[in-house]
Amino acid sequence: MQQRVMGRTGLEVSILGLGGFHMLEISAAEVAAITNKYLDAGGNYIETAAEYGDGESERKFGPVISKRRSDCVLATKCHVRESAEATRYFGRSLKNLQTDDVDILFMHHVQSMDELDRILSPSDGAIKSAEAACAAGKTRFIGISNHGHPEVLVEALERYPFDVIMTNFNYYDRFNFSLIEDKLVPMALDRGCGIVGMKALGDGFLWRSTANAFRYAWSLPIHTMAAGMNTLEYLEMDLALAENFKPMTAQEKEQWVLKAPELNTYVCRQCDKCLPCPEDVDIPGIFALEGLFDRQMWDGVIRNPADGWLRNSLRFWFGNQNRAKSSYGGLTVQADACTACGDCDPRCPYDLSIVDKLRRAHQKLTSEDALY
Question: Would the pTM count as exceeding 0.70?
Answer without folding.
Answer: yes
